[in-house]
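2024-03-11 09:14:02 INFO queue: dequeued item Transcriptional coactivator p15 (PC4) C-terminal domain-containing protein, len=90
2024-03-11 09:14:02 INFO validating residues
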Amino acid sequence: MTESMCEIGAIGKNKREELLVTIGEIHGHRVVDVRIRFENDEGEMIATKKGVNLRIEALPGLIELLEDAQAQAMLRGWVDSPTEAERDAA
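2024-03-11 09:14:37 INFO prediction written
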């Protein structure tokens, strides 16, 4: 899966794993890839087969779903609103 991928970033999942986001081309298709990456015994971060890649055209829909999930989490009091989180960090 390493044809032409560009790492966008990663967020921690737990002590040894993170969620990695990349975009690029796989077999001639432009994709966004979201995958678990873990720290091996040598301290290297290795991408696993656990993940999904979507055609790049699906990216706006994925972002919309994540924004909806964030809104629901805020309504339930599970997370602060982005402005509250920024204010708390200052």
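2024-03-11 09:14:37 INFO annotate: The longest strand covers residues 29-39.
2024-03-11 09:14:38 INFO item closed
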